[in-house]
Amino acid sequence: MKTFLLALLAVCCAATVSAADKKIVLIAGAPSHGAGEHEHRAGLLLLQSCLADYPGIKTEFVSLAGNAWVPDETIFNDAAAVIIYSDGEPGHPLLREDRLQKMGALMAKGVGLGLMHYATEPSLANGNKEFIAWTGGAFEVNYSVNPIYLGEFKSLPRHAITRGVRPFSTTDEWYFHIRFRPQGVTPILSLVAPESSMNRPDTPRLGLREGNEDVWAAVRRREPQTVMWATERPDGGRGFGFTGGHYHANWGNDDQRKLVLNAILWVAGVEVPANGVESKVTTAMLRANLDPKGGRGGAAPNPTLSSMTALTALPRQKVTDARRALVYNALANPALLKQLADELGAANLELAQARAALLAEIQATPEKFSAEQIATLVQQASQ
């Protein structure tokens, strides 16, 4: 009998501990972009696996398709935090039907909110004031910009989110010139954006996210730009915005991954350990759960996931940057034209060599590629 009572007491204690776990809801937006880009589902599943054995929390994962929403909203019952990794307006899952109002009710209860990469972008008419209130900031079209460049984070502030994180650098689509609320926002990742990140002409503008007079002036003044931030709200809830995450391969960077894992705990009101959330990620883990994609392609300019993504890696970005520099300086500094034309020629040659190497690999080992992948790669190589 005594043995039975002790066993029963142990079960009851375990149930009590489990009931007290903080629930974190992870919402992955629908697939978008090309292979290795905007891997919302694979990215959040990877982060979830890194938190699988962390004490005091439980995670619930939802993967959305198209315009769908979570199939059962009771998933939000007793949630301590919601993390959304998705496209932004017009594909943001919060900005349809009455979902923004429902999220607002959770925020009023002190639930934390983390928005990652494109999910930091609402529209001015729908979600802007809410995102700024809930997380402290938001990407704003015709004000913020989304260039791809090497983000070098040489120092980090003292904050629970940065515990155990060392200075690091990754090439990513680090948004900057974010619209922040005037007070109560803590910069987590900041940098001086390189002038090369704005190798795009002032006039005419190339798009809603390409540049404006304010951001041009800020870059020329070398003003530090915040690309990740955190806030503690008056309602007791917490929020963060993380603008990286365009390239899936960057989750293989131990410090970038730790930073976001720390942020997920912090926004849920969980104590972040002194050395941060420790985790190990393998190449196989990075390749798991990727969405089947074709068309635009796309790869991390850091270590590539596979040959499928290699075609549009750094060589292609170099061509884009060199072409933008040439266009801008044709307007601003004609004396540099020959040098820039040579740089564009060199970048084009590097891209051609990368394409040739990849096509040679397809010819040598066609069994590694599906027919759809081969067709996509051949189409891209002809562009």
Beta-strand portion reads: 15-25%
- What is the quaternary state of this protein? single chain
Q: Strand-and-helix sequence, N→C?
A: HEHEEHEHEEEEEHEEHHHHHH
Radius of gyration from CA coordinates: 22 Å
How would you classify the helix and strand content by structural class? alpha/beta
* Total count of strands: 11
Largest sheet: 7 strands, mixed
Show unreliable segments: 1-18, 295-313
Mean pLDDT: 82
- Cα shape: globular
Helix content: 25-40%
Walk across the major sheet and give the strand order. 2-1-3-4-11-10-9
Q: Tally the helices: what do you get? A: 11
Q: Distance N terminus to C terminus?
A: 78 Å
Verbal overview:
- With 383 residues, the chain is α/β, with parallel strands linked by helices.
- The chain is 36% helix and 16% strand.
- The protein is built from 11 helices and 11 strands.
- A 7-stranded mixed β-sheet has the order 2-1-3-4-11-10-9, covered by helices on one side. Strands 5-8 form a two-stranded antiparallel sheet. The protein has a two-stranded antiparallel ribbon with strand order 6-7.
Task: Summarize, please.
The protein is of the alpha/beta class.
What key attributes describe this structure?
383 residues; 11 strands; 36% helix; single chain; 11 helices; seven-stranded mixed beta sheet; alpha/beta
